[in-house]
Amino acid sequence: MAFKVAVASGKGGTGKTTVSVNLFHYMHKNVCKDIQLVDCDVEEPNDAIFFPDIKIGAEKEITQLIPEIDNSQCTYCRKCADYCEFNAIVVLPPIQFAEINASLCHSCGACSFACEYNAISEKPVPIGKVTFFDTGFGNGLLEGKLKIGSAMQTLLIKESKNLVPQNNKMVLYDAPPGTSCPVVETVADVDYVILVTEPTPFGLHDLTLMVDLLKEIQKPFGVIVNKAGLGNNAIYEYLHKENIELIGEIPFNQEYAARYAKGSLLEEIPQEMEECYLKITQDLERRMTDYEGNNNLKW
Ligand code: SF4
Ligand code: SF4
């Protein structure tokens, strides 16, 4: 059982990907060689562009079983529509119309079970793909990428996580931004969540939403303030008032921001950044050791 950590933020643009890629790099360098990065931001995965020596590996298409109604068998009894909790089926007996809205379907199979007339069959429909990358160190990157037009982010994240090899001691999920279902799916099985925020009013607002969510689902978490030195102190006052652990601060660095824009995050990392990440990896190492102890693991 790997120690699983998600890097999340209540909104985009806080530096979540920067932190994820750097933590993958520094955890591998300082703490754990058997580490895997998983890009769960399936609508816009971009972790791969930050690894200079990355090589594409295996790819797997992910499908969803979508039911189809055979009108020649259908009696328009509406039983399938009554069973569907997602309102994905429209049956209009007066005009003998029955149709499934694939974009609302969650592939639960209830309609097929309900139909007594053998009028429903299921066929696989692609929703995206999972790609394995060799990053040149660690156990590499696994990336979920949603097919354009698909709304099955949550299912694809779940399938991506199911494909993570069992040989890892640590798995790092780069979560999608926001606080909706895809984020909940990403953090569902993790042991710890790192919330990345920035010291601005927007950063504070979105952080509070994430904190409420994680308290609701009872996940342990700590906060990294990115772009420290910009903005104001309100975020620190909030953390203090709510007794939330500040696990690290990463200063805003103009030169490093420019390097991010060019995709070269892991080259010539400024000394002050190195020191920040060293402190954060020490914190994660301590949590990982506690996790191993609590689960009687010997790797
Ligand atoms: S349950 Fe079967 S027969 Fe009844 S409306 Fe649905 S598909 Fe048609
Ligand atoms: S598989 Fe489930 S969600 Fe999809 S149409 Fe059938 S009952 Fe509705």
Describe the structure.
The chain is of the alpha/beta class. The model has no long low-confidence stretch (mean pLDDT 90). Helix 4 runs parallel beside helix 5. A nine-stranded mixed sheet has the order 3-6-7-2-8-1-9-10-11, sandwiched between helices. A two-stranded antiparallel sheet has the order 4-5. The chain is elongated. Strand 9 (192-197), helix 6 and strand 10 form a beta-alpha-beta unit. It is built from nine helices and eleven strands. The N and C termini lie close together (10 Å). The protein has two domains: 3-62 and 129-294, Rossmann fold, CATH 3.40.50.300; 71-118, Alpha-Beta Plaits (2-Layer Sandwich).
Brief summary:
This protein is α/β, with parallel strands linked by helices. The chain contains nine helices and eleven strands.
Task: Chart the SSEs and their pairings.
Layout: E1 3-8, H1 16-30, E2 35-39, E3 55-69, H2 79-83, E4 89-92, E5 97-100, H3 110-114, E6 120-134, E7 141-146, H4 153-162, E8 170-174, H5 181-187, E9 192-197, H6 201-216, E10 221-228, H7 234-241, E11 246-251, H8 254-261, H9 271-294
Parallel strand pairs: 1-8, 1-9, 2-7, 2-8, 9-10, 10-11
Antiparallel strand pairs: 3-6, 4-5, 6-7
Summarize the amount of helix as a percent range. 25-40%
Order of helices and strands: EHEEHEEHEEHEHEHEHEHH
- Radius of gyration, CA atoms, in whole angstroms: 22 Å
Structural class: alpha/beta
| Largest sheet: number of strands, sense, barrel closure | 9 strands, mixed
Q: Give the count of helical stretches.
A: 9
CATH superfamily of the largest domain: P-loop containing nucleotide triphosphate hydrolases
Q: Poorly predicted ranges (pLDDT <50, ≥5 residues)?
A: none
Q: What is the CATH architecture annotation of the largest domain? A: 3-Layer(aba) Sandwich
The percent range for strand residues is 25-35%
- Average of per-residue pLDDT values: 90
| Distinct ligand kinds | iron/sulfur cluster
Cα-to-Cα separation, first versus last residue: 10 Å
Could you give the count of β-strands? 11
Class of the largest domain, according to the CATH hierarchy?
Alpha Beta
How many structural domains are formed by the residues? Answer: 2
Shape, please? elongated
CATH fold-level name of the largest domain: Rossmann fold
Major beta sheet, strand line-up: 3-6-7-2-8-1-9-10-11
